[in-house]
Structures are given as structure tokens and as C-alpha cells.
Give the backbone structure.
Amino acid sequence: MRAVTLGPRGDGTLETNVKPIELRELWRRYKNDGDSRVRERLVVAYSPLVKYVAGRTAAGLPPHVEEADLISYGLVGLISAIERFDLSRDIKFETYAIMRIKGAIIDELRSLDWVPRSVRARAREVERANAKLEHTLQRAPTDAEIAAEMGISIEELNESLLAISHSSIVALDELWSVSDSSGDQVSLMDTIEDPGAPDPARALDLGDLKDRIADSIAMLPEREKLVIALYYYENLTLREIGEVLGVTESRVSQMHTKAVLRLRSRMQEESFDD
């Protein structure tokens, strides 16, 4: 059997050079018989997905985190995805698997607790300061205003944002997740929903959530909005975004972190208002 070839298409899905009929037959045999040997063949076929996710995750982590370790964590998520995937659902397996692989990697990294508590505490301080200033000013606060609210210099704020960015394993993917009927967490950005889904209440909730996300992104400062668009929708790396904006990769990382913290605080504030 040929392996999966990773090639993001315009619609965000991943192409595969495995013949669909081969995969369908493997899925049918595994779901009917639970044959572990068939499961192993599915793992081999989809294993490049793990390397794809591990590579993207490693790009935002400190250098001492080995990509090989992330791959081993991700394989656990891939096996879980194969075991739990429901063929009757109108969701591509690659989409579902990527979510499970990300979750397995994140869970393992969290269990290692490599991020200093001081960094996590500073992230919460930035979120609180941003939320307070946005409520008072009715606009996105500047770096100087955030630094003044926190009682630190702009240089200290930038250093904190850079440290926080190194601890950010996921951002938008983690912030906005919804639970399906099985209790699994399905990422809003990675899941392709069936437009003819029979649950109108769920569709309404998702539509409202998408509108809130879009409104929150629209309220970001222009450069932060551009960073979000280039990173999450155009799939550019931080280095590539820096070349587009004419700034350093570290500066892009800081802008990305600020944007995520602004969005997180705004979404949490709206949740409290509801």
C-alpha cells in the first residue's frame, strides 16, 4: 500500500495517493472484524499525518523539544483516531485524525509541564490587562497602554510576549472547540461540517460561534489581524510573515501572541456576559 502524500489543498483538506477503494476496503475490514493487522496497515497509510502535525507543532516550541518525541506522542493520537472514527459521520478521516493527533501531542506536552509557572502567570496578567483596557477604552489597547496597566516597561512586555509565544502549543484551535454527541472535542477550524446535518440547534450554535470569532478577529489591530490571516488561513510560517511585514520573526511571534491573548480575553468576556 502506498502512503499518504501530504499536500494541503485550497479547501484545507489533505490529498492522498492511496487508492480510495483500497482505503475503503481496509476500513470496512477493520470496523467489521477489529483485526489488529488491518489497523496496523491503516496506521502506516496515515502515519505521514503525524509527521505533518508534529512538524507544525514543533515550529512554535523551544529548541529542546525534539520533533521525534512529538511524532511518538502523535502516533498514539492516530491509533486512537483509527479506533474511534465513525465511518457514518460526514467528516473526512484526515480532518478528524489531525485533531486527535494534535490533542495527543498537547496532552503529553502538558503532562511534562515544561512551561515555567511564571510564564503562565504573566500570560494571565496580559490577558487581564488587555480585557480591562478594552472594556474601558472600547478599542484594542496599545503596547504602551498594556505595559502601563501592568506596571512594566514596553521592553519587559515584549520579552514577556516572546516567552509566552514559546509556551503556546495551540491558539485558535484550542480556544474554540465544540463537543459532538460522542463527547470528543472537534476543532472548529479543522472540521468540515455536513451542511445537511440533522441537528439544527447544533448548526445554530456553530453559526453563532463563527460569527463571534469573526467579529473578534475584525476588532484586532490591522497588523495583528494580518498576522492571524497569514498564519491560520494562508499557512505561512512566522519567518515568512516577518518577510511580508518587514519585521523580525520574534516581532511576528509577539504580535501573534498578543492577538491570541486579545481574542481569548474577548471570548471569555462574552461568555461571562452571556
User: Anything to note?
Assistant: Residues 20-112 form a domain with the Rna Polymerase Sigma Factor; Chain: A fold (CATH 1.10.1740.10). Residues 1-14, 169-180 have pLDDT under 50 and may be disordered. DSSP finds twelve helices and two strands in the chain. The first helix runs from residue 20 to 33.
